[in-house]
Description:
- The complex is a heterodimer.
- Helix content of chain A is 48%, strand content 0%.
- The model of chain A has no long low-confidence stretch (mean pLDDT 89).
- The longest helix of chain A is centred in the middle third of the chain and has 15 residues.
- The relative contact order of chain A is 0.21.
- The N and C termini of chain A lie close together (10 Å).
- In chain A, helix 1 packs antiparallel against helix 2 and helix 1 crosses helix 3.
- Chain A is mainly α.
- Chain A has a single domain, classed as ACP-like (Non-ribosomal Peptide Synthetase Peptidyl Carrier Protein, Chain A, Orthogonal Bundle).
- Chain B is globular.
- In chain B, the strands form 6 sheets. Chain B has a 9-stranded mixed sheet.
- Among the domains of chain B are: 155 residues, Rossmann fold; 89 residues, GMP Synthetase, Chain A, domain 3 (2-Layer Sandwich), CATH 3.30.300.
- Classes of the chains: A mainly alpha, B alpha/beta.
- The interface between A and B is medium-sized, with 22 and 25 residues.
Amino acid sequence: MDRLEVMDTLKAILTDLGIPEESLCENTLLFGHLKLDSVEAVRLSLQLKRQLGIDLKLGTRQDMTLAQICLLAETAPFPQSS
Amino acid sequence: MISAQLPSIFKMDSISAQLPSIFNVAAYFLADNQCLQRRDKIAFYYRNESYTYAQVNGWVQRMAGLLTKLGLERENRIAILLPDSPEFVFAFWGAIWLGSVPVPINAASTLDDIRYMLQDCRAKVLLTNQAWFETLSPLTSPFLQHIVQVDGEKPVMSLLAEQDDSIPWATTHREEAAFWLYTSGSTGRPKGVIHLHQSMVICAERYGRETLGLREDDILYSVAKMPFAYGLGNTLYMPMAVGAASILSDAVNAFDIISDIQNYQPTVLFGIPSMYASMLSVQEIAPLHTASLRLCLSAAEQLPKTIWFKWRETYGIEICEGIGTTELLHVFLANLPGECRPGSSGRPVSGYDVQVVDEQGIPTQPGEMGALQVRGESLMLGYWNRLQETRNALLGTTMRTGDRYIRDEDGYFWFMGRDDDFFKVNGQWISPFEIEDVLLQHEGVLDAAVVPRSQRGEDLTQVVAYVSLKPGFTPSAEFEKSIRQVAKAQLPHFKAPTHLYFLESLPRTPTGKIHRKAFLNQH
Lengths: 82, 523
């Protein structure tokens, strides 16, 4: 999966959580900008594992941009499953 | 020293009667921990810092000095709008030390409710941070005279450093108002619940010491924050009552909590059902290290059996569930370690008379459903400026909780539901009307009904919405997404519906009201 596909997958997960697509760009922060709540953080983490094969501990003290998540997905050592 | 007047161990009967009439609960908890064995013991952990009991004592008195200089007088209120932090602790005890009344404000409330609470409590001083100050500006309460910030140009800790750390405590009465907590309540605006100087001692002794066996070498961690009655006891006064340590945490989600437990190695975890469920669901991504834990507790809402069993299967520890209310300050029904009945709220905590009664107020037979009512010494004085609601809730020294319960032959209590349409999610009351109002703001929604869904205690309670659409609109995934966006934009996350169903029309009673019970067995 290339960078564009990873970003599309990530955006699709976030819009399924009820987040408007227009608020999503590479530099968007999960907590600083999107204000993900506790339930959404867990759901996003589970979907990232299922769809992109990455284990991400989405604690609020280490906020991440969408671009950073994409980079992790691209460099993940595990085969990505859909 | 105030402790010289008090018994070190309370007798099983009235605790209140064993307290002197002149009694200041801040001085009680602080003075008791200034003996040589405890004064250098850690009372609170916060990020990379820790505070000994001696340091806390000093900072609290400095805070009392600062508040005096700001003109805060006995019985005046100070609102505290902060995450759990040392400044919160110092302000809470510092205000009580002075005989004034701290009012913690739950930062997870809606902005509208926060503004309401600040007005309603008539706080003369607000302690907050810069972010909240900017969010709330301009603050227009005619009672508010000072806003003190914990950060920014003049942080409160720098002001405290300039104060005297030896201020005499106010000679308050044990039955005098000591602090307020706002309850989300089941109707309308939050209600200010007034508690007395004696209340925290009663809960700390009855639940913390006698029921849980908390001890000096414990480190306590609470998922619920201090503006909640459950969190206040867990983090603040129950550990202090036994000289234990407690963790002040700004954790927001399961990953933060898992990280905190790994870092601080608590021995006692006070959780809530939704957070136990979240920690279990991410165990492959973020494993929880439970080696330090000797007790896991849960309250605030019904703990589903599935979570109880999965937690024990995964970590080998029982979750001791209990139930309490803001009005009674802390837990009054509890399961004990080794005696848990999953799905039940447990048995009465010592000192509380808990009964299930019929419509005439007569105790029901075991197995018969009735209304839950509780009598205990930690009962509130009343709701601030809500006489009718106080009268409705209290019957002499007894509180009607509004819950339906069954007591079994062995004395365990089983939650059956509420008297009204309101329900709890994440430990907070949900008003279906508030959510329906938001859904109805969507241009395509004609009618909406919101109900709870939990499968007989097997799962966490979820918010389910049923909607019918206006002519010209048809159900679709896109349409559902747009409704979810409206809900998300206007509601706290725990109130946003997790399930949404489209119906041609919604069932209504003969009087035109939504027939909510018709939905309860669907899906």
